[in-house]
Amino acid sequence: MSKISVSNLTFCYEGSFENIFEQVSFSIDTDWKLGFIGRNGKGKTTFLNLLLGKYEYQGSIQASVAFDYFPYRVKEAYLTACLSDFLDELAPGCEEWRVIMELDKMKMDAELLYRPFGTLSHGERTRAFLAVLFSRENYFLLIDEPTNHLDQASREIVKEYLRQKKGFLLVSHDRDLLDACVDHILVLNRVTIEVQKGNFSSWWENKERKDAFQMAENEKHRKEIGKLKKAAERTRDWADKNERTKIGYDPVKEHDRGNGTRPYIGAKTKKMQSRVKQLEERIGREIEEKEGLLQDIENPADLKIMPEKHHKDILVRAEKYSFGYGERILLKDFDFTLQQGERVLLRGANGCGKSSLIKAVLRANEPEEEIFPADSEGSMILQGGQKAETAAFWESGLLRTASGLRISYIDQDTSFLRGTLGDYCEKKGLDESLFKAILRQLDLERTRLGGRMEEFSEGQKKKVLIASSLLQRAHLYIWDEPLNYIDVFSRIQIEDLLLRYQPTMLFVEHDIRFQEKIATRVVELGQ
User: Fold this and answer.
1) Which terminus of the chain has fewer Cβ atoms in its 10 Å neighbourhood, N or C?
2) Rounded to whole angstroms, what are the CA distances from 75 to 49, 136, 277, 387?
3) Dihedrals phi, psi of 346, to nearest 5 degrees
4) What does the pLDDT look like over 444-463, one tens digit per residue?
């Protein structure tokens, strides 16, 4: 067991006016199972890159171990080769027999190493890379969001696998995964950084208690400052009024005033002014104690959504509906109705057709619009390595939507987001000022509002799509994996929104906590 010590770390990107980290100091153990959380854009991936030595920085990072990072970068040449062929290039010194042992722990056959890498599903690639990562010795492992795009079964396997490991830093927004796999939490708060023993739930419980205490202390200081200010104002008024009586007096009313009265009044005024100064110093101390109390409190704004009521009760109907690609059948004789007020979760393994069904519903509602189906992994690989978008898509049976149905849609893909937010609003016909206000409520930094979306983190891009959907008036909200890369605090904020407004929804999401809170009905695909 050894320490990784960070001391007075300061870093900012070239051309940026704000530091990502400023005079940051903390230490962690290399035996820990460390969860790493924070708002989107706060610098989690940046910190991993600093550990890997990719950027220059001020301060020091001292460690007696080497670092390895997940996910590995996949070169174009890897897609046609087998994992065993480029294993040494991926992780120098990695022994194949160790990788096979780790694959077995994740319920995967060793033959995966000898299949063309391009034919592996996203879940298979994730588990293969984790097996390579943990087969190396004397490394502290940096694991960056391993469960994005994984179906529930794959998530459970990865969760159980990581539960048995140690010596890693896990960046994740999946509360269920963090609770199961970590024993310490490293948190990038709004201003400070803290390290705490426990999992996400224990940290969150402690945070709620701490926030409540600090808000109570803040209110106590605020009231005390108000009282002191009033006392100081009264004393200052008395002093000023008293000082004015030093010169000039009415001999009739003040016939007993002698030559010693003026020095007496001056001494009394001086004493009052001294008291004013003491009160002002005490006010300063109270303000100083008050400052910093609320700096790390998460106080998310209440979001709004504008669901509309449709004149029909059933919004989507499928009868004996089937579809597939080429010779592969993804959905067969599917019967389904989506009623107004329901929030229906589509659940199933990667590649079972969840996203394809969503695209089919969109196409049925807008027949003139060209919408290409794809599975939850992007371009699906069929048997023989043929890509879905090059295979002939077919459908049969009935799939209808209610007439005049307005749908607000969030795609799981963010690669099309380019240009400025103003360009995006113009293309979508959105009110730019209102759109940016919603992004601010989702905690997108003010400095990002004028930037280009290509420079956004994946979580920030997702927030662009969520803000766009919230701004649209719709009868039905179709969200395809909306929470990928979205930070924990925003997830809770979105959950509260949906439970408050209860819009009609058809959605795909693998976050089990989100599923449990939001879904009123679950439809299993691929059974």
Assistant:
1) C
2) 19, 21, 69, 18
3) -90, 120
4) 888 889 889 998 888 899 99
Distance CA 476, CA 407 (A): 5
* Cα–Cα distance measured from residue 28 to residue 342, given in angstroms and rounded to the nearest whole number: 46
Beta bridge partner(s), residue 345: 507, 522
Q: Of 71, 127, 149, give the one whose Cα is nearest residue 351.
A: 149
> Any idea which residue has 């898509």 for tokens?
393
Q: Say whether 274 sits in a helix, a strand or coil.
A: helix
Produce one character per residue of 315-351: b if its CB has 16 or more CB atoms within 10 Å, e if not. Answer: bbbbeebbbbbeeeebbeebebebebebbbbbbbbbb
Q: pLDDT tens across 158-200, in order?
A: 999 999 999 999 999 999 999 999 999 999 987 788 999 999 9
| Assigned token pair, 30 | 């290399």
Report d(CA 70, CA 108) in Å as an integer: 19
In which order are the strands placed within the sheet that holds 66-70?
A: 66-70, 139-144, 168-171, 33-38, 184-188, 193-197
Strand locations in 164-234, DSSP E?
Answer: 168-171, 184-188, 193-197
Count of alpha carbons within 13 Å of 472, Cβ hemisphere only? Answer: 20
d(CA 322, CA 314): 20
What is the pLDDT, as a whole number, of residue 375? Answer: 41
